[in-house]
Amino acid sequence: MLAVFLFPAVLALAVSGALGSDKEALKRIESNMKCLCDCPHLVSDCGEECGPAPQIRANIQQLLASGMTEEQVFAKYEEEYGPRIYGAPKPEGFNLVAWVLPFVVLTCGGVLVAVFLKNRKEPDPGPKNRRRRRTLSAKHRKMLNRELAE
């Protein structure tokens, strides 16, 4: 008797879990696939005014519902449209440069700034660099006051 009540509940949870995973997979695919309308947006960011985006979403939903995995969906689109469908370059081959180069440049820049700051010397506050305050003699002060008065 317990099995009669538990079976529908377990079946409902399994179906909702499968639907939830399809929705999550759809979100992940949309947020990693560029739109095919030659705009710079991802499918998840492209609005309804875009022609291909709603069709791509519907096609991805159909592919996921038919049992394809995320990798298989990407492979199908890559086979049809090439590597331009990826929102970010795949980290393989020459594309590794796009992933590694920013970190290398930032590290080298940081090292250069640190070396520059370490080797920078403060000026010696010796007698040559010290400013002396000069005062006017009484004779020169009178001359200056006369000139300013005229």
Write the layout of secondary structure elements.
Elements: H1 2-30, H2 52-65, H3 70-81, H4 96-119, H5 138-149
Structural write-up:
It is built from five helices and no strands. With 150 residues, the chain is mainly α.
CATH overall fold name of the domain at 11-112: Helicase, Ruva Protein, domain 3
Helical coverage, percent range? 55-70%
Intertermini distance: 119 Å
**CATH top level assignment of the domain at 11-112:** Mainly Alpha
Please state the oligomeric state of the protein chains shown.
Answer: single chain
Helix segment tally: 5
Count of distinct strands: 0
Shape: elongated
DSSP strand (E) fraction? under 5%
- Return residue spans where pLDDT drops below 50 for at least 5 consecutive residues: 1-20
Helix-strand makeup class: mainly alpha
Radius of gyration: 36 Å
- CATH architecture classification name of the domain at 11-112: Orthogonal Bundle
Biggest β-sheet description: none
Following the backbone from N to C, one meets helices and strands in this order, namely HHHHH
Overall pLDDT? 78
Features:
mainly alpha; 5 helices; disordered N terminus; single chain; 150 residues; Helicase, Ruva Protein, domain 3
What is shown here, in short?
This protein has 150 residues and is an all-alpha fold. The protein is built from 5 helices and no strands.
